[in-house]
Amino acid sequence: MNALYPPSSFIDKVIAAIRTVIGSAPAVLHEPAFAGNEWLYLKECLDSTFVSSVGKFVDRFEADLAAFTGARHAIAVVNGTAALHIALMLAGVKRGDEVLIPALTFVATANAVSYCGATPHFVDSEERTFGVDAQKLRDYLDRCTEQRAGFCINRSTGRVIRALVPMHTFGHPAAIDGIMAVARDFNIALLEDAAESLGSYYHGRHTGTFGLMGTISFNGNKTITTGGGGAILTDDAELARHARHLTTTAKLPHAWEYRHDEIGYNYRMPNINAALGCAQLEQLPAILAAKQVLYERYQTAFASVSGVRLMKAPEHCQSNYWLQTLLLDTKYVDQRDILLQSTNGAGIMTRPAWVLMHELMPFRECPRMDLAGAELLVPRLINIPSSSGLI
Ligand SMILES: *Cc1c(COP(=O)(O)O)cnc(C)c1O
């Protein structure tokens, strides 16, 4: 019992509800599970001596990932940030451009835009999905941009708005139909930051396969991991070829000659990471099933706690429930920090949502629309232990 609060307090009820589901042992936010062929494939990879940028596991991982997501092509890279960087470049994003991204995202989205010499332009998110608010964005672009020679121009900066990158927050699919329509109507390229949403579907179709390209992360804290890793998904054969070329130093195929025809990147996923990835992909259905059960148990536990609810998959969507999220009632926002302190103090790892991008030092001067939706949402969000191993 926490002496600081009366037993009936809101905080104690939340902690009790979490404990009903996860038990009394300490729990981290998200840890990987290696229950399949991980050791076997890693040993096979070491025995082959092909641990680096070529090898059969990379090719297999790409084929398996394409099969799982339904994308025609998957290009495996060193991490999700690198995947975003290359996807943005291939969408034509260059120095002096602007790229629309949610203010409510992990910093990697904004960083990747900056690597291209472009400026992030922050857009608002909605409570229903935690993703880009399509209607609000449409109204904003109607007011603040004009079309010139087939390009969308930000009237106040005179710069081209080249791309829009929605993100599927904590694994919940954004309302992608409406977002796609905005991109199309304003002549803006659509890329999806699907770093968090492997195994999440919008109307039966895998997230990351709606835009020109989608990107995934296999960092250690994501739904499945390759240690570090990422991938680009696309249906376009030419984009896939170019992505593979750019991520392997843009070297022209030749038996011995080192000739590179553009400035390339050493972004190819190493074979040893892909070996881990192949085993993890085999486990993905079981991991997703466990995370669904965890969601249902939390849902039951929190049904009787007033003042807070558990985020559920948006309508007609399937979420991977990467990070389970509590949404505090507005009148309880002053309880968030106490809740964070009490849970972490009690061995239950919890985290708030990210500090919004426009509040971060490097991005303070970037253009942005009204962000009231995201600003009201962030103080209400808390991620709670979400590992598949808790089941
Ligand atoms: C994890 C993540 C990334 C970046 O992935 P890394 O593999 O860590 O580089 C990008 N965007 C979002 C929203 C993420 O959560």
Walk me through what this model shows.
The protein folds into 2 domains: 9-33 and 283-354 and 383-390, Aspartate Aminotransferase, domain 1; 38-282, Type I PLP-dependent aspartate aminotransferase-like (Major domain) (Aspartate Aminotransferase, domain 2, 3-Layer(aba) Sandwich). The chain is 35% helix and 16% strand. It has helices at 10-22, 38-48, 56-69, 80-90, 107-115, 134-144, 176-185, 237-246, 271-302, 336-345, 372-377, and strands at 73-77, 98-102, 119-123, 145-148, 151-154, 161-164, 189-193, 201-202, 205-206, 213-217, 230-234, 308-310, 317-318, 324-328, 351-352, 381-384. Helix 1 (10-22) crosses helix 9, helix 3 runs parallel beside helix 9 and helix 4 packs across helix 5 (107-115). The relative contact order is 0.20. The model has no long low-confidence stretch (mean pLDDT 96). Residues 79-81, 105-106, 108-109, 167, 193, 195-196, 217, 219, 230 line the site of pyridoxal-5'-phosphate.
